[in-house]
Amino acid sequence: MAAVLQSSAVRFAPRRLGHANLFVGDLDRSLRFYNRVCGLEEVRREPGIGAGFLSNGNTHHDIGAMQSGGGLRVGIGGHIQIPEGRGQQPGLNHLGWEMESEAALAAAWRRAVDAGVAIHRTADHQLAHSVYLFDPDGNLHEFYADVVEDWRTVFNPEREDLITSQWEPDAQPPSKIRHWARDPQIRVVRDAVFHPKRMARGVFVAKDLARLRDFFVDVAGLEPVDAAKDYVLLRGAAADDAWHLALFAPRDGLQPGLHHTVFEMTDEAELLAAERRANADGTEIELIIDRPDKRSLFVRDPDGMRFEFRCARSGRATLPADLPAALRIYFV
Hints:
By secondary structure, the protein is α+β, with helices and mostly antiparallel strands. 17% of the residues lie in helices and 33% in strands. It has helices at residues 2-6, 27-36, 102-115, 209-219, 268-281, 328-331; strands spanning 16-24, 41-46, 51-55, 63-67, 73-74, 80-82, 91-98, 121-124, 128-134, 140-146, 165-166, 196-205, 223-228, 231-235, 245-248, 257-265, 287-291, 294-300, 306-312. The protein has a nine-stranded mixed sheet with strand order 2-3-4-1-7-10-9-8-11. An eight-stranded mixed sheet has the order 13-14-15-12-16-19-18-17. The longest helix has 14 residues, at 102-115. It is globular and about 50 Å long. The chain starts with a helix and ends with a helix. The model is unreliable at 1-5 (pLDDT under 50).
């Protein structure tokens, strides 16, 4: 009980959601989809752990994909990245939360350890240092800080060696330098359906909404910006973004777990052009949301995982409470 009472002092307080890492049924097939449909450039493969990474240039990866069913995955020096029995089916591996600096990450790690929060592992990815922990619903989250100025020195198609080893946060003084990109160089996959600006948000259905909310406030350190009986929206420290995470109660047939992740588009003209490209090449659009404050398209990857591509509008927001309960999760 003491660890729970102390957890409110942890607060990792990341800037924003940086990426989603997914277990997929067929790695090559999924990487083609994320490139051809989602518009992300493949920046690295890591055959030793059955993984690939894609980015449009805003950060080292917006999506990481790992072959499901592969058993134990081991990095440099015997560092266990995926334990035996995990990732047997397609689905979420983890969400990656971008921290301000290595110093901020190390300080949060120390607070978590002192509070008795269970740390899954810490990792040195060469371009970033990371702390991994599970939320109360069993979803894994990575809190990471970039530690190199040019991530392409590590993530580039010419390299396929293992990159991950153990990180000891207190082995040496952590850096206070902020390595996240202030002016990222966006690359466009010209023939892709979508040309997103970045991974922006995640939407979960909670097993226990109150318990999961408390984790994201007290341990993850996100700030609630809107809430009702059956949902809560939370934001990281990058206050220019409206929110980064939505949690919904398990009702109206919604199953607990990741419901969808959200890509932000540059503008509405680009989103409309993507809709035309999708129709022309046969990419199935599951749902179109058109409302005063946003327009968005929903698509599913080859394993059925759902992605939203959205752009903001200046109109009045539709309150989730004003919508049919089954649709609220799509309208945030």
